[in-house]
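Subject line: Sequence and fold of a protein, written as structure tokens
Body of memo: The sequence and its backbone structure tokens, given next.
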Amino acid sequence: MLLQRKVNRAFDWQKEQVRQREAESNKKPEYETSDELPPMEDLVEKDDVALEKGDVPAMIMSALVTILPACILVLLFIVLVVWFAFGL
């Protein structure tokens, strides 16, 4: 892999952080070997945030406001390239 040393260093740092958190909470470390990675459930913080009544329509509208102008610009660029290339 191109950046294998950096990836390994990041994994080692992450394992050390997990071990420190477990030591702070007075737990016995579950991950003794350096080859074993902790399960994803242990690494992801859980915050059960419930959506409010108008959250979904607001997220849809914000996605449209964000994505639609970018799509329009890309389509406009394609049309201009075709127009200049073929002289239509």
